[in-house]
Structure formats: C-alpha cells, structure tokens
Give the backbone structure.
Amino acid sequence: MNAPVRLIACEKQLIPDIAERICHGNVVSMFRSILTFIFIYSSQSLGCDDWFAKLKIENSKNCESLCVIADTDMSTFRCPDRCESLCNQASENIYGLTDDEIKFCKENKLDCLRAYKETWSAEKICLKIYPVSDVNDESDACRHYVWSILLAKSIGTIKAETVLNAHENNPREPKNQQAMDLANNRLGLLDYQKMKSKKITDEEITKSFIEQLKKNSLIILKQNYKSTGGLP
Amino acid sequence: MKKLLVAMLVLGVLIISTVIYGQTFWGGETMSSQKVKKKWGSEKYNAEAFKAGTYLDKSKMAYSIMTDKKLLEQPYEKIRELFGENDGFYFIDSYPTYIIQRGKNHSEETWQLVFRMNSKFKVRDVIMHKNCCDK
C-alpha cells in the first residue's frame, strides 16, 4: 500500500481491519526504516572507505579533485559526496596511530576498536596499582604487559601480536623505549599462552604482573619504585 | 503518537548515553582551559622556565600553553625541544605529555598537559588530562 493511501486509511479508518494493522505498526515500521537506513548508510560508509583506499590518492595535494572525478559503481556512486571528509580523514589521523596500526585498522575495523578500548582498560588496571601513568617505569611495564594479555584475550594471540608490533613501529620512539615495550609485550603474550583458562580476570592479570615484577622478568628503564620492590 | 514520542525518547536517551560514554572512552577525563585558568592561574609561559620548573611552576603556565595558538601545527621535535622529555603518558609514548600536578597516592589527583598530534606529528591541540586516581 503506498503512503497516501495508507495515510487516508489511517485517518478515515476506511479499511478497519487492515488500518488497525498498518497504522498501529507505523512506529515499528518507522524504527525498522531508521535501522535499515543506518545499516545501509554505515555499509555504504565502509564501502566508501575501501573505494577511497583503492584510489591511493590520500597523500595527494589534489586529493579532493581526484576523488570527485574517480570512477564509481552501483555500490559506490554516492562516495564522491564524501570526498572532503575522506581526504581530511586521511590527512588527519587524530589518534596518532602508526602506519602499521592504520593498516591493521583498515583491514580489521572491529578488532581495531577492541584494541583501542583495551589500551584504556590496561591503563585503568595499572592505575589501580600505581598512582600515576609514567613512561619507562614500572607503570609503563605494567601497561604493556597487561595490554598484551587483554588483547590476546580479546582478539586472539596472532592479531594481538600484530597490533602490539604495529604500535611499537613508531620512528619517533627512542629505540631503548621501543625495546622495553616489545619485551614486556612479549612476556605478556607468553604468559597468556601458558594460562590454563583463557577467561582470565583483571585480578588474575594483576597478580601475574606482580609475580613477574618480583621475579625481575620485566624490562624497566626508570625504576621509580626500586626501594619498595617495584610497587608503590 | 504516544508510541512515537516514547520511541524518540528512547532513541534520545540512547544517543546521549553513547555520546557521554564515547567522550570518556575516546580520551579519559579532561579539564577545560577556563577551569585550568581558575585553578592554577594564567602566568605567561616561558619554555625554559617550564622545562626547569617545579610542578607548581608548570601548573601556573599551563593555561597560557593551552591557549597559545602559535604552538598549534608545531612539529613533535619542536615541542620536545621547547618543553623537554615526557614525564607523563597519554595513549601512546610519543605524545609529548608533561605532568603539572603529581599525586603521591591514589587519592591525590595527577594532571598532565598533552600535546595531541596529528598524523604528520604536528600539534593538533593541547589538552589538560587527568592521569590517575580514585577521585
């Protein structure tokens, strides 16, 4: 039934039994339409990202003009409307990800989001032990050790290793800091693989970290808590 | 009509919750420059004095650093040269981050200035971020 007919049917109650079903189902239909729209729009957005990536023009000064005239097909014909944001998105990587992280994120959108979320979870766990998140100290070692376990738990060991290495592939980070982080990441992954239950809790991760700290297995460049055995 | 209003209300609550959760999710707790000014004052910053200064000295200069437009688009190397080595942490090790108030335990707040970088590692913005605690 087309929209005007449905409207008349609802207002005038011309066809009572059908009107009852259609008019009272309006909210549900509307919701369904909104959800469908969101779904289609988001799929299209993801499609546009891929379409844009294939153009390989993100670093070009004429990104927008090249993007607008690029070939499209039935699934990407609306993508040129988004050229401005696609070009800006490419030049403004707001979260300071490394090139390898960007590559991983483009290929694994959901895992990328999970990995990002776990960075904050790791920091939160370590802030329960240490009062401040510092660099190169015990809190730094904690973040990397905990993050690697949370990542392995969330996206699997192989992808976790990819993300962890991608995160450290940062030319601006001093080599000694990079080595410290990689070593502590590795220890976290190895410990996760040894764990019997893969549904490890935050408390168990914390306990495992403290054990490694006591065994001096973690690499720490700046010992802020040396006099108290690595703990505050 | 009533159902429509309820549906819109539910949708509104969902959107607001997502925005609130998203703000914390994407960056943690921050303090606006106006609140920074009110809390620590607005002393004009001097990079050398900041580098060598105490947390108290640094905190007084925080507002002028946050609001200095000239620092925007400055490269990572320039910020490190001006303000020295990181002593805080925000998301990745290579965001220049400087603690301006350091809590001694979990009940004391720690605040840090963060120079957030864009993909070209130039300053995108400067924020005051809470690096800690139970409070």
